[in-house]
Structures are given as structure tokens and as C-alpha cells.
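Cross-posted from the bioinformatics board.
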Amino acid sequence: MEWKLDDNRPIWIQLQEQLTRKILAGWYHAGEKLPSVRDLATEAGVNPNTMQRALAALDSAGLTVTNRTMGRTVTEDQIILEGMRASLAEGIIEQFFDSAAELGYTKEQAMELLKRRES
Amino acid sequence: MGGPLIQCQDVWKRYGKKEALRGLNLTLESGKIVGLLGPNGSGKTTLIKVLNGLLCPEHGTVLIDGEAPGTYTKSIISYLPDKPYFAGWMKVSDLFDFFGDFYMDFDRERAEQMCKALLIDTSLKMKTLSKGTKEKVQLILVMSRRAKLYLLDEPIAGVDPAARDFILSTILNNYNQDGTVLISTHLISDVERVLDEVVFIQNGQVVRQELVDDIREKEGKSVDELFREVFRTIPYGGGEW
């Protein structure tokens, strides 16, 4: 997975989002050890302090756990992982309806479009 | 230590009538990668030369790790000048000997590994290398020191975009994490994501010093865009031809 950073938002937030997606997509699975801050920073081509900030945000979201012996690992708490996955999905759905609304579709019409596509 | 790594207070430097630094104040902490940004002629190179003791300011105080520029500060500063200064007849390996003699903190093995990674033959003479390769050799020498302060004057100006990426990742991979890297450049969009902090300099004064992510958060734009805005010059409108 490539790191993509856009120009106008804080870099650490974008790193945090992309790490979250990587974890939820199973790139790093539950209980797996994450690479070191420095390695991740090099991979993304960013400042290690910025990567550190993104990882600390994952810690405080409960998505990763840092302990002395193992370093930083992905949480094994399925409730947190599922909750996170659901809230990401929610965001995608919201985006879909917003974009549809921009094109002039009501929520119902947009739902109809979705269903039609399915069949 | 605890104290700041760089402390400049009311620093003035003139070249004849031209004032290059005009009461510049700057404080930088350890453990950061900092961009020194400013338009041409704003005083970037002069400031770097003052910091490493090549130039002596007429007025003001400069402290590096608590000391005035001198033997000690030279031992902890690794400096990349804006132009190459090595004799053409020297081989890359001669330069390694040279740096080994001059600097206690030079890590020859690291330098050799970097050359290997870049497929640079260390038995070649400097004058046979291309401009870009020369610059890479110079950067390798500078980054192979375990310095406290790296002063890099335009490290990416003369090389192609692929080499730029290489240089930036070399800096990221090799700087001593307790050390600070000060990079002067006007190619901001290329370096922005490796920086913690930026210092904007204009007419010999620091006009802004801020964290990159704070700028993005507050202004909703990149440092590159902010720079273009702050230093915008109104094009001369010549009217009808």
C-alpha cells in the first residue's frame, strides 16, 4: 500500500488515517507487531517525529498497544477493531450520500440507485 | 544538556553596505529537522556560515550548544556547503581518509555502505564524477558524521528528482536522532514532509517559525503555498506593448 499525502491537511492526521486503514484492511493483523517508528517514517518518507505523533494517536484510540517487551502491536480487542471498521464504513456511506446529493439525488433515490446496481 | 542547540540574538552581518543579517533572532532545539526557507538573497547562506563559524557577525551573540563558534562547535557541526569544495584529483576514498583524520565522529563504514548502495566507485577521482554524483558524495561525507548539528545548504538543488528522494531518505535514515538538521532550500514542496519545523527568513530577519503541521492545521494549506503567499512579488505589469 502506498502512502499518499495531500498538501493542505496536517501530515500526522493523514498518517494516522492511513495506518488505521492498513490495520483494518488486515495489512497488519490483530496482535501483530508494527514496524519501528523510524522504519515507518522512512517508508512513508516523513519525519520520525511526525510518524511518532500519528502512532501515539493510534495508541490513544486503542487501535494499537505499546508495551515494554513487545513494542507496539495491533490490539487484539475485536470490539475496538469492529467499532473502528464500522465507523470507517459509516464515513464512506455518508460520503456517498453527500456526493449523490450534490448531483441532485434524494436519499431515497440514491438508495434506489444502490439497489439497482446490486441486481 | 537541556538548553537550546542554537541560540542567536540580535545578529548583524554586513558585506560592505549590504546588510545580510539584520538583528536576527533564532532559537532551535535538539532532535528536529528544520527547514530554513526564504527567497534568494534573504540571508540563508549567511546565517549558516555564521552558525558554523565561517563568518563572524559584527554584532550579536551566537551560541551553539551553549558555546560561541570555535573548535568545540566545529567538532559537533557537520556542514554541507552550497557548492562542492573538494580537489578534483582526490579519490572518494581519499576524502574518507581526510574526513577520518579531521573528525572524530566520522563513521567510515557507514560512508562506504552508502556509496555501495548508490553504486559509487570509491576509487574514482572527484573530477571524473558527474555533478550530481559529486553532490551525493559530499552529502554522504556530511551524513556519515555523528554530529549534533547538521547544516545543509541547498542539499537538493542540483540533483534530479529521483536523487532528491534518495538524499531526503539518506537524511532521514542517517541523522543522529538527538541531533538537529537545518536544511536551507527553496524547493519546499520536496522537503516539506521530512520537516518538523520551518523558519522563514526575509531581509536578514526571522519572520516566522512554526511547526509544519501547525501551519497546515491553522492555514489549511501547505508550507509551500504559504511561502508563495508570504513572499509573493507583484509581477511588473508593463501595460500595453
